[in-house]
Amino acid sequence: MLHTPSWSWPTLHDAQRSVLLEVLMHGSRSRAELAHRTGMSRASLSRLSRDLVDLGFVTEGEAQARPGRGRPSETLRVRADAAQFAGFKLTGDALYAAVVDLSATVIDTMEHPLPSREIVDVVDLIGRVLEEMKPAHPRISAVGVCLAGDVVGAEGHRRIIGSHFLGWENVPLADLVRARTGLATEIGNDVQSLTAAHHWFGAGKGARSLALIGLGAGIGAGLVVGDEPIRGAHGHPGKVGHLRVSDSGPTCDRGHVGCVSAFVTIPAVERAVGGLPFEEILRRASEGDEECSVVVGAALRALGVVIANLVSIVDIEKVIITGEGLPIAAASPELLNAAVAEALDPAAEAPPIDLHPFQFADYAWAAAVSAVRLVL
Fold it and tell me: What are the CA-CA distances from residue 6 to residues 2, 70, 108 (Å)?
């Protein structure tokens, strides 16, 4: 059954999107400020403001006094409840869902096991969960989906080249979800989606260039350069897991000796200490256990190589580390910083490293933010 939305996102022209995005990302702004930041005339800005007020996306606040003479300038702020967006994170066995408002604040979450990994079953589950959410959130305007995999294509029509965890290849997922739900749909790699979400609304807000490293069962990176997420020519940027750290050492699951993935992922850390649970290894390392300390130290040095390479190549302003494997980075920030400094090009400057708290629903939040980005 197709889902027919009772309310849909209106078509906005470029100037309207520009003003709405400015207020959305930077908070309340006076009309005078908006005119200055967008390069529009006061008359054009006033007309656009009225349009956005009439559409229900912004409200007018208290007037701000302007320096010198002249009338106070009214402020505009986003109406967060004007629209909602649904995001879905797919793993090999579960679906995590989130609904955000127009300010990207999470207002609802759900979790469901996958009935199977068959594409038709997963797409139908997304549709059924959306139908379940719709009565409480009738202004859901677009859908985002993210997963561990490679994604290519134009916005709103992206397809999955391959996803190891789901066993998918060449799946036109955006088109399938849009057909099932009746809503514009964006698809993305999970780490790339999380990077873009943090760039607009999270730990990277305000930075024009940044790297986000997602650390867990694997390791991947997302990059923003010049305020634009890097998507790559073939849909798989940020493949840092197989950078060479040493010519000897453990072997990763692809048979590479001494690569980053052989040291820093959760499975690699556990294998290095005979299969002990990840949390137990970290606990023992913190208490001075020699074997566990050596493994954690090797993981931090490998992570430092990744950060140093990204900084040396792109000269980024900020690094964000997050994911289920975040406790590795947090085990010794001092050792991590030293590892970055050792591997960094002498002419490069080490940026601040933000160890950002993580929960798995963050990926669903990121997918929902990708839906916001799609319509704006």
Answer: 13, 44, 20
CA distance 55 to 214: 38
Q: Digits of tens for pLDDT over the chain (376 positions)?
A: 444 445 789 888 998 998 998 888 888 888 888 888 888 888 888 888 889 999 999 998 765 555 555 555 678 899 999 999 999 999 999 999 999 999 999 999 999 999 999 999 999 999 999 999 999 999 999 999 999 999 998 888 999 999 988 999 999 999 999 999 999 999 999 999 999 999 999 999 989 999 999 999 999 999 999 999 998 888 778 999 999 998 888 988 888 898 999 999 999 999 999 989 999 999 999 999 999 999 999 999 999 999 999 999 999 999 999 999 999 999 999 999 999 999 999 999 999 999 999 998 999 999 999 999 999 8
Specify whether the CB–CB gap between 229 and 200 falls below 8 A: no
Q: Which amino acid is at 216?
A: G
| CB-CB neighbours of 18 under 10 Å | 17
Strand spans (E) along 206-358:
210-215, 219-225, 228-229, 318-322, 353-355
Token code pair at residue 4: 């027919």
Rounded CA separation 322/356 (Å): 5
pTM of the model: 0.90
SS3 per residue for 353-365? EEECCCCCHHHHH
| Contact criterion met (CB below 8 Å) for 163 and 220 | no
Structure tokens at 332: 């010794």
Structure token digits, residue 44: 């054009």
Listed in sequence order, the residues at least 6 apart from 332 whose beta carbon sits closer than 8 Å to its beta carbon are 296, 297, 300
Which long-range contacts (C-beta less than 8 Å, at least 24 apart) are formed by 233-236? Answer: 234/150, 234/152, 234/161, 235/150, 235/151, 235/152, 235/161, 235/189, 236/150, 236/161, 236/189
The amino acid at residue 327 is P
Nearest CA-CA partner of 43 in 61, 27, 57, 31: 31
**Residue 309, SS3?**
helix
